[in-house]
Amino acid sequence: MRVSVLVNSKAGSVNAELIEAKVREALFRCDLRFCRPQTLTEMCDFLSEERAQKTDYVIICGGDGTINVALQCLMKCQEHLPIPPIVVVRSGTANDLAHEIGISNRIDHAVRNIFEGVVKNIDVIEISSGEKKTYMLTNGGLGMPAVAAELANKFRSHLQTLANSPKSAAAYKYLAQKSYYAVKKMGPTVYSMMTAEAIRTWNPEGWELEIEIPGKVNIETSSPIVLINNQQSIGASFLPAPYTSNTDGTVNLLLSETKNIPEHTRAALHIRRGSIDKSSAFKSFELKEFRLKSQNPRRALTFFGDGEILLKDVQELSVRCIHRGLPVMVRQ
Fold it and tell me: On the chain, which terminus has fewer CB atoms closer than 10 Å, C or N?
């Protein structure tokens, strides 16, 4: 049995050597092919070659961002090469997908899903703008959520750059390194911090959206919180879509019609507590597809999905659910 193992040594608190040793021990009878890609091209080349070799399984060791990058590569040539079942090993910041589908924190248990689990085909959400197509599996959105995701990514990247820069003074490098590892240990809590900052700095001027839903009247909104959910939770602490499933062929669209910082804060608290049905500020839809458009040419859209910025500075985008588009291994 051929098993392809992708390890993102930069994700979360990854110890690549430990992961590889655990995988080898748990799957000692398999024909294992490891890759620790340093670039996106290297990752895509590895996945393409393994699919061409008709690998039986692909193990992805990393967080939601790593899985998302691999997903882009896998979805590009799905018509010509079927996607092999994916096995997820938790080693990122939030691990939202792993949390949703019940993946063990133990590496050996996670990879043994190959033998002891079953295939679950989950929905893939396609987000496109013009000729560009991107994909996500968990949650995404626009407005404040995108600002919070971008702030979190920039903060981590800045700390990592300072920690590794040869031009940084020794004291700064030490402080940046300690801060970076502290942020990684915080896990999804970092998104709560950045949500507060996104609320504080949100500029509503010119934020006007039009939502086109097939067969329905278009919706005009200035909602600062636009969430697109393929599963119930974000970061294991926010619950924007408590009734959403990643296998039902629909995606959840959540809007909050809030106008000021106190209202934004209350909306964020409702999302955190999973009590959006107790607030009249929210509108929630379960849809197969829809289109979002900025009504202000000077206010472009930035979209995040799976914790990563997928589209930036676009005027409109389309969202479509690909029903059960990705096979993943889970426990029964």
Answer: C
